[in-house]
Amino acid sequence: MRISQPVSSYVGTLKLSEIFYSLQGEGIDAGKPAVFIRTALCNLSCIWCDTKYTWDWSHYDYDREVSEMTIPAIQEQISEFDTKHCVITGGEPLIQQTKLIPLLSNLKKEDYFIEVETNGTILPSETLERFVDRWNVSPKLQNSSISKQYREVQSCMEYYAKNSKAFMKFVICNQSDIAEVKTLIGKYTLKSQRIILMPEGNSAEEIMEKSKWLAEICLSNGYRLSVRLHTLVWSGTRAK
Ligand code: SF4
């Protein structure tokens, strides 16, 4: 069931990993200065995840990595940065979507542009939808090692396919991933101009090697190419 309630009825704290100021590294706003709110926790466990410190408690210490913050405390930190562009990322932000609502509501009153990055497996409430300017949806492919029943939620894919604020970003490891992307495009009638292909990789060399053949695929299909700007510029460092 989708939820639509008055914003004033939502209270509580958010479990966060970090708040930082950087350049957006991915998607159609790549290169834009933004404040990032990285939420903790994820409902998936992708094999190549580059933010395992938000959810992998067998390798990271929860008490060290996760802070519970009130909405006023989060807003105070956000206001320290000279930008009106805010990226809610994770982990998977929609795990805490009810508690995100008062934060996003307050930020919209202050004229922030709000991007939300999601793995596209949790349906947003109608209330949350009101405060989001752009959805950066990153549906997972077989290369994530997540089984299909968890990585492809039909109702969510259909929702974002019809949502004019949503761009679909696919992480590409090999050329064989392209056939899987095309199957999803056909199945959900995704618009090619809203498709973004992004090379998987943790080094500038890997990113550039994959970008060369991905560029050709984007040109011949009308997709966008997103390199990982943060990996090219700050390779190996956690957050800038
Ligand atoms: S959905 Fe995103 S945050 Fe979650 S495990 Fe996969 S890559 Fe990491």
Describe what you observe in this structure.
It is built from nine helices and nine strands. The protein is an alpha/beta fold and 240 residues long. It has one domain: TIM Barrel, CATH 3.20.20. Helix 3 links the parallel strand 4 and strand 5. Helix 2 packs across helix 3. It is globular, with a radius of gyration of 17 Å. The model has no long low-confidence stretch (mean pLDDT 92). The site of iron/sulfur cluster (SF4) has 10 residues, from loops.
- Main sheet: strands, sense, barrel: 9 strands, mixed
Bound molecules: iron/sulfur cluster
CATH class category label? Alpha Beta
What is the assigned CATH homologous superfamily?
A: Aldolase class I
Order of helices and strands: EEHEHEHEHEHHEHEHEH
| Helix percent band | 25-40%
Widest sheet, order of strands: 3-1-2-4-5-6-7-8-9
> What's the overall geometry?
globular
Using the 3D structure, state the CATH architecture.
Answer: Alpha-Beta Barrel
Backbone CA Rg: 17 Å
As residue ranges, the low-confidence spans are none
- How many individual β-strands? 9
Helical element count? 9
Structural class: alpha/beta
CATH topology-level name: TIM Barrel
- Beta-strand content estimate: 15-25%
